[in-house]
TrEMBL record:
Keywords: ATP-binding, Nucleotide-binding, Transport. Belongs to the ABC transporter superfamily. This is ABC transporter ATP-binding protein. Residues 2-232 form the ABC transporter domain. The keyword Transport applies. It holds the Pfam family ABC_tran. It comes from Rhodalgimonas zhirmunskyi. Signal peptide: none annotated. GO terms for molecular function: ATP binding; ATP hydrolysis activity. SUPFAM superfamilies: P-loop containing nucleoside triphosphate hydrolases. The lineage of its organism: Bacteria, Pseudomonadati, Pseudomonadota, Alphaproteobacteria, Rhodobacterales.
Length: 246
């Protein structure tokens, strides 16, 4: 579905990401892990079309074999910071992606409002971002991304600010929604439990320069995952990360 070929990202003379290629399939949730600073966010930002202007990227991408440039209407992106507009209410922020995509304001409102209870945001539709907790803000940003009809989802540490129970709830919610409506999802996370529980594939990045060093499939359906099998995969991932950070 989405294919990246030979992506290199430079900051002046420094190479941040080098010659990175990957393919994301529809109906697949891929987690991207790697040490801090290895270039995970830079890759995702490039795919979202929001790479900082001082960075220079070379590389190509296709969707279903057709060359694309970013930003692209088939791609929805949740950045690491919630980036809610402080002058818009929670509901208005959550509607933004839909409205930019051309949806009528009332229809966008109805679609996001239906999801407020599942996101623990009910009663906060008219609150402004500075009236929300960090976790609520992150859920509002997640909502803004997930309601879009985009075929590709890019989620950069979408649950990092959530408490443990809410995080588990949102992880399950996302896995269920992706099962109902397959998309190609790429999720950056530092949490190996989250990665092995949710993903059907984990990509490992190394730094200096940023590159992919492993592609680990997790072929089991999430309902059938045994703790023993997942613990084995986590140990393998942990060893890789330790090697990359030592
Ligand atoms: N605008 C920029 N100009 C110069 N260097 C940058 C810029 N943005 C990021 N970098 C550098 O690029 C490298 C990769 O950063 P990036 O945010 O992609 O890493 P990351 O793997 O997502 O890290 P983390 O896990 O901590 O979020 C880092 O060394 C960072 O300092």
């Amino acid at each position: 579905m989405l294919e990246v070929q030979a992506l290199t990202i430079r900051a002046g003379a420094d190479t941040l990401v080098k010659d990175l290629s990957l393919r994301l399939e529809e109906g697949s949730l891929t987690c991207l892990i790697g040490p801090s600073g290895c270039g995970k966010s830079s890759l995702v930002k490039w795919l979202a079309g929001v790479l900082a202007p001082d960075l220079h990227a070379e590389g190509a991408a296709t969707i279903d074999g057709t060359p694309v440039t970013f930003p692209h209407r088939d791609i929805a992106y949740q950045p690491q910071q919630d980036t809610l507009f402080p002058w818009l209410t929670t509901a208005e922020n959550a509607c933004l992606g839909l409205e930019i995509g051309g949806m009528d304001r009332r229809a966008a409102r109805d679609r996001v409002k239906a999801l407020f209870p599942a996101f623990g945001l009910e009663g906060h539709e008219e609150s402004f971002p500075d009236q929300l907790s960090g976790g609520m803000r992150q859920r509002a940003a997640f909502l803004r991304t997930i309601v879009q009809d985009a075929r590709v989802l890019l989620l950069d540490e979408p649950f990092s600010a959530l408490d443990a129970v809410t995080r588990l709830h949102m992880q399950d919610w996302l896995v269920e929604r992706l099962a109902e409506r397959p998309r190609a999802a790429l999720m950056v996370t530092h949490d190996l439990f989250e990665a092995t529980q949710m993903a059907d594939r984990v990509l490992v990045m190394a730094s200096g320069p940023g590159r992919l060093v492993a592609d680990i499939p997790i072929p089991m359906p999430s309902a059938e995952r045994s703790e023993t099998a997942l613990a084995e995969i986590r140990s393998k991932l942990k060893l890789m990360l330790l090697k990359e950070t030592s």
